[in-house]
Amino acid sequence: PEKTSIQVTKAWEDGNNQDGKRPNSVKIKLLADGKEVSGKTLTLTKANSWTGSFTDLDEYKDGKKIEYTIKEDSVGKGYVSVITGSMKEGYKVTNTREPEKIKVEGKKTWNDKNNQDGKRPEEITINLLKNGTKIDSKVVKKSDDWKWKFEGLDKYENGQEITYTISEEAVEGYSTEINGYDVKNSYTPEKTSIQVTKAWEDGNNQDGKRPNSVKIK
Fold it and tell me: Start and end of every CNA-B domain (predicted)?
């Protein structure tokens, strides 16, 4: 009987495994005229360059040419599988996964007795840090309700989850306290003092009526 073979190649579209979710291996099954062929499974790995072949396959059955196709066991982890190609050219299985995205959002709290001294600035600058390195900044104003948001941020890099933090450009006269992605600025209203001196014009207490003390409010 005439024999044939079918080559299968795996391709990944996942940002070079940016999120670290790519499996170590995948299983490809062979179908003949739509039915799974027992014992015909390929295991594709990085070690075999994600390429393999089904060999020694009968080309005909009952005088009719067999139509061979393939299917892939579900990879999961957010991957979508698409099979292209043909028996003659070989099949290509492409697994696509969009890198996960997150957002960082926070708000400002002012602790300055409702801006009693009028020292509160018109705007502040919030910096976004990725694993300790500044990558973005936003100017935040009262019209923003003193809130900020950084969106579309990669959750992973080289398979490792990214740590995002924030910092604030110094606000003159205010101390800064950061809690997660929220910032509290505190200002202590300025104080002053007033000296009071009492003078007597009573003939040096001639009549002996001068009190021993007075209260000033």
Answer: 6-96, 104-185, 194-217
Tell me how far CA of residue 168 lies from CA of 97, 140, 141, 213, in angstroms. Answer: 35, 11, 13, 53
Delimit the domains of the chain by residue range.
3-96, 101-186
The strand pairing partners of 177, in sequence order, are: 184
**73 band by pLDDT with thresholds 50, 70 and 90:** very high
Q: Which of 43-57, 112-126, 183-197 has the lowest mean pLDDT?
A: 183-197
How far apart are the C-alpha atoms of 12 and 123, rounded to whole Å?
Answer: 45
Give the burial class of 213: count Cβ atoms within 10 A of its Cβ; 0-12 exposed, 13-18 middle, 19 or more buried.
Answer: exposed
Question: What local confidence, expressed as pLDDT, does residue 162 receive?
Answer: 98
Three-state DSSP at 16 gives coil
Measured on CA atoms in the order 202, 204, 207, 213, is the torsion positive or negative? positive
Q: What is the DSSP letter of 206?
A: T
CB atoms within 10 A of CB 6: 23
Q: Is 140 exposed, middle or buried (0-12, 13-18, 19+ CB in 10 A)?
A: buried
What pTM was estimated for this model as a whole?
A: 0.72
Whole-number average pLDDT of the chain: 94
Domain 3-96: state its class.
mainly beta
Q: Which of 45, 41, 11 is nearest to 29 (CA)?
A: 41
